[in-house]
Design brief:
Length: 328
């Protein structure tokens, strides 16, 4: 069992210890679930009332919350991010074994670094490259002209269709598809003609892409995710979109083609971003909102309607339907 002292955890996360520096911590948990040999955290002041009942052996909290806790503690300016760094120490990760597992099919001109790990039933196409330390999980398909950077992880059943380039330390979860055709169509004499998708997909360093998320390749230029972009599950990124560095999107967001989203943006779940618009840096789009025009200034934007009791909502709709008559 992995164990660390509070002093060791403090050095790892750059924190201050209050109390017994030699206290041993063997895991992490919430205020409600943590036991005497586990570390909990208080990031939201609304949960201060749970301090009295927690069984955690130690806590990560802010300096202003120390007076509400009489046990051992790690003091942090941002307890949530500090807790995340510490929790990573306790995450079980199997050591990847370099080499190519049985059943993998590798094109003759593909380049696989000897320090990469290729799982069973993986397919790697012509002219593709897998760098040192990369982990390609079972059932993944890497098509033609793809580049998987150092220490990337494709967990399982990930598909890179073609012309996909991953920077170092990219992590992609099961079922994601990168580099499929973008939705390019032209109407000609009463029927659709498919527009060839000749671009690719470029993913920057340290990005993470959730399960069953899809990122289409560009029509001419590439679809781009800059470094440290974090995408949740079941997100659609249209062709030629650009997502700025350190932006995070919650599940079921849809970004239409050629949209350009800035750096450090937060996009709430099931939000929609129209095509060919630009969103400035440090914009928050609330869940289930629809962005149809460019946003030029940072701030919080939303158009979603929170759920209400059904009868109250019907009364509101009835008043809206009478609004024209009232204004006239």
């Amino acid at each position: 069992m992995v164990s660390y002292t509070l002093a060791e955890l403090a050095r790892h996360a750059g924190l201050e210890v209050r109390g017994d520096t030699g206290r041993s911590v063997e895991g992490v948990g919430t205020l409600a679930s943590a036991g005497p040999r586990q570390l909990g955290f208080l990031a939201n002041p609304r949960y201060r009332r749970e301090l009295a009942g927690t069984a955690a052996g130690a806590l990560v909290l802010r300096a202003e919350d120390v007076e509400h806790w009489h046990g051992d503690a790690l003091i942090a300016r941002d307890p949530y991010s500090a807790f995340a760094r510490i929790a990573a120490l306790f995450e079980p990760r199997e050591t990847a074994v370099p080499g190519i597992q049985p059943g993998a099919v590798i094109a003759p001109d593909a380049r696989i670094d000897p320090a990469a790990s290729i799982g069973p039933h993986v397919s790697i196409g012509a002219r593709s490259r897998v760098a040192a330390g990369a982990r390609i999980g079972p059932g993944c398909v890497i098509g033609e002209d793809c580049d998987v950077g150092e220490d990337c992880e494709l967990v399982a059943r990930v598909t890179l269709v073609c012309r996909v380039r991953l920077g170092p330390r990219v992590r992609i979860h099961p079922g994601a598809v990168l580099g499929a055709d973008g939705f390019g169509l032209a109407m000609h004499e009463g029927h659709w003609i498919k527009v060839p998708q000749l671009g690719g997909v470029r993913i920057g360093a340290d990005c993470e892409i959730g399960a069953n998320t899809t990122i289409d390749r560009g029509a001419l230029d590439d679809t781009v995710l800059e470094e440290d972009v974090r995408l949740d599950n079941q997100i659609q990124i249209g062709h030629n979109a650009t997502i700025g560095a350190h932006t995070a999107m919650a599940g079921c967001v849809a970004v239409a083609g050629s949209a350009k989203i800035g750096r450090y943006c937060l996009i709430g779940g099931a939000a929609g971003i129209a095509g060919h618009i630009e969103i400035a840096d440090k914009v928050v789009v609330q869940a289930m909102s629809l962005v149809t025009h460019s946003i030029r200034e940072s701030g919080t934007y939303g158009s979603s309607i929170p759920a209400r009791e059904a009868r109250a909502w019907r009364r509101t709709l009835a008043r809206l339907n009478r609004l024209d008559r009232t204004v006239d």
